[in-house]
Amino acid sequence: MLENILHRNNMNAAYLKVTKNKGSHGVDGVSTSELKAQISGEWDTIHDQLLKGTYQPSPVRRVEIPKPNGGKRELGIPTVMDRMIQQALNLYLQSIYDPAFSTQSHGFRPGKRAHDAVRQAKTYINEGYTWVVDIDLEKFFDRVNHDRLMRTLSFRIKDHRVLRLIRRYLQVGIMEGGLTTPNRSGIPQGSPLSPLLSNIVLDELDKELESRGIRFVRFADDVQMYAGSKRAAERILKNMMTFIEKTLKLKVNREKSAVSRPWKRKFLGFSFTPSVKGKARVRVHKDSVHKAKQRLRQLTSRKWSTDMKYRIEKINEFLTGWYNYFRLAETPSIFKRMMEWLKRRLRMI
Length: 349
Fold this sequence. Notes:
By secondary structure, the chain is of the alpha+beta class. Helix content is 50%, strand content 13%. It has helices at 2-5, 8-21, 35-52, 80-97, 114-126, 140-143, 146-154, 160-171, 194-211, 230-247, 286-299, 308-326, 333-347, and strands at 60-66, 72-77, 131-136, 174-176, 179-181, 215-219, 222-227, 258-260, 270-272, 282-284. Helix 2 crosses helix 4, helix 7 runs antiparallel to helix 8 and helix 11 (286-299) runs antiparallel to helix 12 (308-326). The termini are far apart.
């Protein structure tokens, strides 16, 4: 298997993905534009180490990015060389694992999008499943059990060199301020292999839900289940919290998890209107509107000393991205109100 992963065609595809995505440098300071030169000088040695099982990945560089709801999200940025190797692993393993994933899993998969997940949720509501079980997985990426994940991977991956390499990527240290801290649990966010590994972990949840005949939709670690009655939904919540914590060894945030109506919850930035004659509509959740206005306030602030041309350019850039994502909403008045509000802000500059 490792020979196939390291095949020239697969490595070329991995190289193109890494250089196209660009991204920040790792602990060695090498940028994506310098990767080609690094390959020329070092790849023969690294390739030999990979085949022998002696290759040691570099620590990841810790960076923090702000979360939309406040707080910070920690990312671990691998070196560009390790990003290329992980991308090669990802491309090959995805071809093995993805065909067996649930059709209700939509995150980080070829041909799947957040909009597909929201449409599926709407279908359930319109079929009469108007109670939602919203389970929040607390710090999912930080809590994945390495031993359990490696055991799951070993069912399909029989090449021990590949398993050893993946474990090394899971356990690679996090460097901050020149000091490296070992990583004993979790999947490092920021690496090309992380999305696939997270789907492999949560595929067990998908299969359990399917075996019980429960209607659900999942996008990465954001999962909702649908039921026809409050009693059925409460039973699902109780049973699945037990499965997640006892079997998957993950933690459920009980404060954020609940049984409710779909139009009272948020899913991927959207929500729904209450069913009228059995038909619900997709709408933009109020939190998403609030966050958009927060960003637009920054872009229209008098304190930001910039020329109007550049300001308008940045506003248009933000609005284009925001509209392209939320255009799925079937309540167009929100876009009209947003533009009227923005025009008032612009007149005040």
